[in-house]
Specification:
CATH topology: HIT family, subunit A
Number of helices: 8
Number of strands: 14
Strand content: 15-25%
Structural class: alpha+beta
Bound molecules: 5,6-dihydrouridine-5'-monophosphate, zinc ion
CATH superfamily: HIT-like
Length: about 350
């Protein structure tokens, strides 16, 4: 068996363990790998309170409700929910050619902080911890409703990702069936568990910890790494060291350590191009109200689009739309870059009064 270095400079494919899909890596195209630059973009002078923001305390939302004068985080039902609770069950199938079924669900929005001008990496670990607490209590409330089978907790950050409002916030969608990414990851984890009686991600994590070359950060409960099969240039995952099925299993200490891991990776992301780093991030966890899922191992994905600077993004087009995702810089290279970056936010260095680090 050859070591990875035999592949490293040649075009090769890597297997995504969680989905069974492949990514094409073309490292020979990066003759001069570090082409990153810090752009001199106009400073973001958002106020701490924006009277027109639907997430700021005391303001009104689309449905006419007033937000309370909240501290910490605040959750409400999305006024334009993509899924609705009162959707009746119905199916349509014509000759197995035209197939459809209704989907029941509900969508919530979580404001991470009353402060309009901050983002996750600019919140203190204790404040991020409050967001983790709210994720946990929302997960509990939603999973208490037996018709809900899957709960997706996520954050869409940055205009480039289609995020409508810079006020720090995330979303939760809960639904009566399993979405496609969860179906893929369920099948792969189940197949591994049936053979090995251990979680796929636990085995993968042990190997990564042994190798070390894709590890960005580690504390007693979580590891942040660039997955071997990363598609996005600076894609990462947070994986819990304990193979738990969902975030209800995290105790107070683990919730604090998760907040720390989130703070570290999002701060490093911002520092990479000295910009508020856009991404879609979210947790994957076991389906609910459908029995025990010992194969499922909690993890969080970060999918950031930026490639070379605050404005140069990777496009998933052409060959990637039609055939296969592809990348140039290797996951090992991305991990080395992210690892060496400071965990002190760049803004707090240049504008120490603006960004609390606690
Ligand atoms: P983004 O995270 O993609 O920006 O979405 C924010 C959500 O906030 C979006 O789904 C909802 C939108 O429907 N929203 C409300 O629930 N109430 C409002 O008053 C405006 C926006
Ligand atoms: Zn706001």
């Amino acid at each position: 068996m050859h070591g990875l270095h035999h592949l490293e400079s040649n075009p090769h494919r890597r297997l995504n363990l969680l989905t069974g899909e492949w990514v094409l890596v073309s490292p020979h195209r990066t003759k001069r790998p570090w082409q990153g630059k810090v752009e001199d973009l106009p400073r973001d002078n958002r106020p701490a309170y924006d009277p027109k923001c639907y997430l700021c305390p005391t303001n009104s939302r689309a449905d006419g409700d007033l937000n309370p004068d909240y501290q910490g985080s605040f959750v409400f039902k999305n006024d334009f929910s993509a899924l609705l609770e009162d959707t009746p069950a119905a199916q349509y199938n014509e000759n197995e050619l035209l197939v459809a079924k209704t989907e029941r669900g509900l969508c919530k929005v979580i404001s991470f902080s009353p402060k309009h001008h901050l983002t996750l990496p600019e919140l203190g670990i204790a404040e991020i911890g409050k967001v983790v607490d709210l994720w946990q209590s929302e997960f509990k409330n939603l999973s208490d409703q037996s018709w809900i089978k899957y709960i997706q907790i996520f954050e869409n950050k940055g205009e480039i990702m289609g995020c409508s409002n810079p006020h720090p916030h995330g979303q939760i969608w809960a639904q009566s069936d399993l979405p496609v990414e969860i179906i893929k990851e369920s099948e792969r984890q189940k197949a591994y568990y049936e053979v090995h009686q251990t979680s796929l991600l636990k085995a993968y994590l042990n190997l990564e910890l042994e190798k070390g070359e894709r590890i960005i950060f580690e504390n007693d409960a979580f590891v942040v790494l660039v997955p071997f099969w990363a598609v996005w240039p600076y894609e990462t995952m947070i994986i819990s060291k304990r193979p738990v099925q969902n975030l209800m299993a995290f105790d107070t200490q683990e919730k604090h350590l998760l907040a720390e891991a989130i703070k570290v990776i999002t701060t490093k992301y911002d520092n990479l191009f000295e910009t508020s780093f856009p991404y879609s991030a979210g947790m994957h966890q076991a389906p609910v109200n459908s029995g025990n899922h010992p194969e499922w191992h909690w993890h969080m994905h970060f999918y950031p689009p930026l490639l070379r600077s605050a404005t140069v993004k990777k496009f998933m087009v052409g060959y990637e739309m039609l055939a296969n995702p592809q990348r140039d810089i290797t996951p090992e290279y991305a991990a080395a870059r992210l690892k060496e970056l400071s965990i002190e936010h760049y803004k707090s260095k240049t504008h120490p009064h603006e960004s609390p680090i606690t």
